[in-house]
Write a structure and sequence with these properties.
heterodimer, A: mainly alpha, three-stranded antiparallel beta sheet, B: mainly alpha, about 0% strand, rod-shaped
Chain lengths: ~210, ~160
């Protein structure tokens, strides 16, 4: 049966994140390495140890890691406040690993929003942008077949091993594939016309029973 | 770093599976709003100083706080909006009668929004059927669909 909770989907693979998407908010919390190009008064306390000064400034030329949302806000093409470096997994070394065999890599450990974060990274106009986008695309192409096959063939079994090394976007695809498979099986068994209690209601009922047992 | 509390709110919802509604984190929201107030006041003061004493070196700092304010706002709005989607899903699934433990998790505003909606529902049924536990009936599909979705009746295939 159809579900009724439809969360706001991620826009990270496109030009802009979706403002209301929880996934995009979590994705843009991931950090990247930057270098300050101007001193930042009164903010030293956040990034350094306590010094003698009451309100230390963050000096120019500091290397630190900040979340993507902050880097996006402070970045401009003239690099007046900061300049952005690429995280290792989007650099040449790792790109070569991906091109050798994309399937062996644990993208969940590297991300877990590998594709979304990588796409948004293109906003910083790195000279390597063309290579980064090609790498993202080819990596996905290399992995897609296996994800599709496993999602269409794993019926009623524990799938944790299959999704362990997938990033969040790939896991979403896998789940969609599983839903299609389950819906089809249900139809084949003639159960498609059967109305069932909604899964939301069932989950709440399960929880209520557990509470009473405490 | 700023905006940690706001992110925690988002994580809370992201963790809740399948559209379930966790308790409204009133305390969390209050903390985020307090942080926003402090950031705003610090920026007001620095903007004045920049204008009156020509301290343009404060501009990066002002921008930093500004983006933190925007981030806090985004997290809060997304939190409220996602809860709204979950409340709507519950209304669609349960109809106008919510189990008490679900209601307990909602803020006063969320409950009121459900109630107002419920008053427009018209239930007009000429026939009456005694629904005793474990009894079986033959009922038209459209009449029992909602009760089945709510878990009151079970659809038995013949």
């Amino acid at each position: 049966m159809s579900e009724s909770y439809f969360q706001v989907e991620s826009g990270a693979l496109g030009p802009e994140e979706n403002f209301l998407s929880l996934d995009d908010i979590l994705m843009s919390h991931e950090k990247l390495p930057v270098r300050t190009e101007a001193p930042m008064p009164r903010l030293g306390a956040f990034f350094q140890e306590r010094g003698a000064e009451p309100d230390p400034a963050l000096p120019q030329g500091s290397k630190l890691e900040i979340p993507l949302w902050l880097a996006k806000g402070l970045f401009d093409n003239k690099r007046r406040i900061l300049s952005v470096d690429l995280p290792k997994i989007y650099q040449q070394g790792w790109r070569t690993v991906f091109s050798a065999d994309a399937n062996v890599v644990d993208l969940h450990k590297m991300g877990p929003y590998f594709y979304g974060f990588g796409s948004q990274l293109l906003h910083f106009n790195s000279p390597e942008n063309a290579d980064i986008s090609q790498s993202l695309l080819q990596t996905f192409i290399g992995r897609f077949r296996r994800i599709m096959d496993s999602s269409q063939n794993a019926y009623n079994e524990d799938t944790s091993a299959l999704v362990a090394r997938l990033d969040e976007m790939e896991r979403g695809l896998f789940q969609t594939g599983q839903k299609g498979l389950n819906d089809f099986q249900c139809w084949e068994k003639g159960q498609a016309s059967q109305i069932t209690a909604s899964s939301l209601v069932q989950n709440y009922k399960k929880r209520k029973l557990t509470d009473m047992e405490d | 770093m700023f905006c940690e509390k706001a992110l925690e709110l988002v994580r809370e919802l992201h963790r809740a599976p399948d559209g379930q509604l966790p308790a409204f984190n009133e305390d969390g929201i209050r903390q985020v709003l307090e942080e926003m107030k402090a950031l705003y006041e610090q920026n007001q003061s620095d903007v004045n100083e920049a204008k009156s004493h020509g301290r343009n070196d404060l501009i990066p700092t002002i921008k930093f706080r500004h983006w933190s304010l925007l981030r806090n706002r985004r997290c809060t709005v997304a939190y409220l909006y996602d809860r709204l989607l979950r409340v709507r899903a519950l209304r669609w699934e349960y109809g106008s009668i919510l189990p008490s433990d679900v209601r307990f998790h909602m803020s006063a505003e969320e409950v009121r929004c459900l109630k107002d909606y419920g008053e427009f529902e018209v239930d007009d049924d000429g026939t009456s059927v005694l629904l005793k536990k474990n009894s079986q009936h033959f009922l038209p599909r459209w009449k029992c669909e909602q009760l089945i979705r709510q878990g009151v009746l079970e659809h038995v295939l013949s």
